[in-house]
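sorry for the late reply, my laptop died twice this morning and i had to redo everyting from scratch. anyway the thing you sent over, i finally got around to it. pasting the sequence first so we're on the same page, its 360 residues, then the predicted structure underneath. double check i copied it right bc i was rushing
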Amino acid sequence: MSTQPEKILVVDDTAHIRSLFAQMLTAQGYEVQVAANGASALEAVKTNPPDLILLDIMMPEMDGYEVCRCLKADPSTRDIPVIFISALGEMDDKVEAFAVGGVDYVTKPFQPKEIQARVRTHLALRALQKRLQATSEALAVQLEEVRARNEELDALARSMAQELKSPLTAIIGFADMLDKLYHTLPEEQVRESLRTIAANGRKMERIIDELLLLAGLRRVEKVDIKPLDMAAVVKAAVRRLADLIEERQVRILLPDTWPTVMGYRPWVEEVWYNCLRSAIESSEQEAMIALGSTPEGNDSVRFWVRVQGPGTFIPGPADHPDAERGLMTVRRIMEKLGLKASVESTADQGVLYSFTLRRA
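ok and here's the structure:
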């Protein structure tokens, strides 16, 4: 695999020195630029940034120290290593060179092998610095993602603890009542109590299933994408919500036909289930909830759940943690499919939950 040659800028006001460096470094496989003064050097760095600079100190108008100060003052060039090449051999000259940001100092006359060795060393250090910087940036992104996920998981854990506590309290309460008063209660009240226990048990089961689904989504890398019978998928999602639909007395409006799209059926059913459940829980009693689809371009279809009627609103974590968790599940699934989901609210059209799938 071929790689681009490393670029070196030689800055010296003496023509034969520039030529000597150019010949020597080109023979070593480097791409060499030359500049006769400080202003030309700064312009060359701006238009074609090098990997390393060999910089003379004694130049007219702008000496090497000033050139190096300008380079180090600019965030886009401050990390380019600068090796000073100078006839000045006093300690003060060397100290000044390092003080303005140079990484090395070679006095004239120099030995070609010495220059080559120092160039190789500082280019290797620069390459290592770039790799470390890239790794650091990648780690910073990963740490931010972990932080965001941890915050999300903390919020999810609090939400689920609250939700599980409510049905569990109901189950324990009704079970205790039946244990103590079973023989004195009317038969219908006993049956109603048992139905309440069963309904709350199913609610707890749904909460746990959703937590397992969210946990599983993080591990899944690839799923089997196939054409979907959307009518069957929607029917299955509606069936799972039968208790909630009956409790809230909502009316579900379905289209006559559905377009054929590509997807992974278990996940798409879960998306419908959570969008529909969120819609029911964010609506008033006896609301109408319409399901449908709208083409998007030539290759996608937007599916939607619209809450119709007065008093609709977008659920928030404090008001409807169950709905909020459902929307989190929808977002995670759509991210895995490389697609999108959204929630919109308007005064005249109510709340619209939607997601996009590709046509078959």
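The two ends are 39 Å apart (CA to CA).
thats about all i looked at so far, will dig more tmrw
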